[in-house]
């Protein structure tokens, strides 16, 4: 039997180390899609400084491709598609559109190694019949201009988005378990990374969301690192109550987060003066993962009548910041002449004239 | 009887036109304190483009001074002290400290031509026995590097902060009324400006606050003009409910704002793509009038148990933005080694080590 063929999409801090973990294991053929920095990586490879894999220079996986289409043409079809890009459904390209060129067979397994809630829904709707798996990464890794700084071990929790009770869908469930097991077997490098089957990966996902939807969102809004927010009393004013809101939303969909997680997160960055990725995105005028990290949880809360007094104010504010970033990126240019009547009509006018 | 002697403190858009209104009237001697741009104004005067006074070049009032102390020494004592500066009690200098060098007699009348709520309290506490009057300006005027652009007529509402019932304190009340009348007589230029006795100036002040505490605060937080916020649905998501909160806080101190004012303000800037002064301050990395515009109303709300679900989230967020601006202005430099233990202790550590 030939080795599984794996496509890794997204060559940032997470994607590059995922490709390294797969390559290091040796159990698969690895193709990495590198978009903006293709020429750089193709010529010089990655330079990597990893807390577990050590210092590597000129590192490349088996195959590089400029686009998902090119990857499919040259190196496909794939058994596994590992998606590690940012997830910005309100951006120019949705994740389904990114993945689509690689989905040609009926049996590609799509693994979303991404943040956020309800990210599987549009993927399953677009590719019915495909197995879509939930990966939650606890890696610490950043990419800049060919260099990967990997300070926290590559740790992946992998499971079903919606694990079926044993009595139902026994066949597909069994197949999901086999695929999870196979992927772990080609990804795991004992001592270098961690990857485990997570029977309750939704809980893991919601718990990670408790950090992202609070710390990422607030730091992006006020342009301060976490400790500077805490100097201003944010722990009690905003952080603890906002995390309690996420916990309540999770509970409304049957997920009970660990009680201790709030205090763990409140203190996880003590003394580090760390700026989360969404804050960094805002500073770089890059689109934020606002909808999957905050918008989708807020929509679940509304559906289940869960009060969100803090997150419900943060969300419209952050949407406006995203709007500003889109303007700065020239994704649209507002013509003021379109907005001269009642300001109550402006959202409708924008929707009609400025959405592609 | 000699003409009243008037000191105008603050030479921005409001202060420059106030000095012009007084000078044009001719009924007083006008001294203007010009701090940062003294050399420029002393040499070349103001260039003014006013919707009512027309185009003026090389304009100066009778006297200029570099500081309140110099004004007092050269041109004092004063009958009226008109304070037109920004009011930033959490900044390097409070308004009481600014005014203090000019208060040497017992009979100076202090007029606060400034935004915000409860601004008279520290002033009255610092200068007991002095008449402190409330001025609310509806002018449209901006100052930049010697030039004043005065697009909206200088309109002033003047009254007692706490008008006494007729039966009480008849003498001081009568004296306040006489001073208000006198100041109006030396300020009013029919056709060029408007100034009127306002028996209910607290209502006028709260109504102006409804704009400032909502539009100023939100635009400063998301760095967008008003119409761009409205394109994003802010009218219903945030603006109307936040203004209703201010209305409820005013009601808790016996001030009933006009119902129609919410819709007036929602539509006052339709089509103008206007950025309020606090947003401009934030962009220029200048301190914002956060405490008098939002902090004091929030404190009144807490005292009177008025719920402020939106403003109560905006306030801690905006405090963090103010903290960022203070850092950018080098008002303090955080030494990260001071903040290494539990983040719950950071506010206390900051209070102890970084407050002057």
TrEMBL record, chains A, B:
* Keyword field contains NADP: yes
> What are the residue boundaries of the Ketopantoate reductase C-terminal domain, all occurrences included?
200-322
According to UniProt, the name of this protein is: 2-dehydropantoate 2-reductase
Q: Which InterPro entries match?
A: 6-PGluconate_DH-like_C_sf (IPR008927), 6PGD_dom2 (IPR013328), ApbA (IPR003710), KPA_reductase (IPR013752), KPR-Related (IPR051402), KPR_N (IPR013332), NAD(P)-bd_dom_sf (IPR036291)
NADP listed as a keyword: yes
Q: Report the sequence similarity comment from the record.
A: Belongs to the ketopantoate reductase family.
- Please name the Gene3D superfamilies in this protein's record: N-(1-d-carboxylethyl)-l-norvaline Dehydrogenase, domain 2, NAD(P)-binding Rossmann-like Domain
Keyword entries, A-Z? NADP, Oxidoreductase
Query: What superkingdom heads the lineage?
Result: Eukaryota
- Sequence ranges assigned to domain Ketopantoate reductase N-terminal in this UniProt record: 6-162
SUPFAM superfamilies per record:
6-phosphogluconate dehydrogenase C-terminal domain-like, NAD(P)-binding Rossmann-fold domains
**Lineage summary:** Eukaryota, Fungi, Dikarya, Ascomycota, Saccharomycotina
């Amino acid at each position: 039997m030939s080795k599984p063929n794996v496509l890794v999409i997204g060559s940032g801090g997470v994607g590059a180390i995922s490709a390294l973990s797969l390559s290091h294991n040796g159990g698969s053929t690895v193709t990495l899609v590198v978009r903006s920095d293709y020429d750089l990586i193709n010529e010089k490879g990655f330079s990597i400084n990893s807390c577990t894999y050590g210092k590597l220079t000129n590192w490349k996986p088996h195959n590089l491709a400029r686009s998902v289409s090119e990857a499919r043409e040259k190196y496909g079809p794939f058994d596994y598609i590992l998606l590690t890009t940012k997830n910005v459904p309100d951006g120019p390209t949705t994740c389904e559109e990114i993945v689509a060129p690689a989905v040609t067979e009926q049996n590609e397994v799509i693994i979303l190694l991404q943040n956020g809630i309800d990210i599987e829904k549009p993927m399953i709707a677009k590719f019915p019949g495909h197995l879509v798996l939930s990966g939650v990464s606890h890696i610490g890794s950043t990419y800049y201009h060919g260099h990967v700084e990997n300070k926290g071990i590559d740790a992946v929790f992998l499971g079903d988005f919606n694990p079926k009770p044993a009595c139902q869908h026994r066949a597909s469930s069994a197949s999901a378990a086999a695929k999870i097991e196979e992927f772990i077997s080609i990804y795991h490098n004992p001592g270098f990374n961690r990857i485990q089957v997570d029977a309750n990966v939704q809980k893991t996902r919601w718990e990670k969301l408790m950090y992202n939807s609070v710390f990422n969102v607030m730091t992006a809004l006020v342009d301060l690192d976490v400790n500077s927010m805490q100097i201003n009393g944010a722990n009690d004013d905003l952080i603890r109550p906002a995390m309690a809101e996420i916990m309540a939303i999770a509970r409304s969909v049957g997920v009970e987060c660990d009680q201790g997680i709030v205090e763990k997160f409140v203190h996880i960055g003590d003394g580090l003066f760390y700026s989360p990725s969404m804050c960094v995105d805002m500073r770089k005028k890059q689109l934020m993962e606002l909808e999957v990290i905050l918008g989708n949880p807020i929509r679940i809360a509304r559906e289940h009548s869960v009060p969100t007094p803090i997150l419900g104010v943060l969300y419209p504010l952050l949407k406006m910041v995203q709007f500003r970033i889109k303007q700065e990126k020239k994704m649209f240019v507002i013509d003021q002449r379109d907005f001269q009547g009642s300001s109550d009509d402006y959202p409708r006018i924008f929707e009609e004239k400025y959405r592609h």
